[in-house]
Amino acid sequence: MALGFYLAHVEFSAEKYESALKQLEDAGAGSPKGRTLHVALDSGDGGINVFDIWESQEDFEAFGATLMPILSELGVSLEEPMVATVHNVIRG
Q1: Class of the domain covering 3-85
Q2: Predicted confidence (pLDDT) at residue 45 exceeds the cutoff of 90
């Protein structure tokens, strides 16, 4: 059963987001196992928040082992993510 994760970040500028993407790619985690959708959202104050759909909590947590040190290095902290079971996805 897929899960949706909404991650609100503190101090996550568009520049830091792009840097995190590059570092994830360099670490071989640009398209991680279990993530089926990634959306970066402008928070309205120049920051970026993220909505992802993951196949499982375990896949999300495995990705976190790579992501969290990168975010920490960039000076980005996460609020507790909002997590919900995906009921439906409509594309287009």
Answers
A1: alpha beta
A2: no
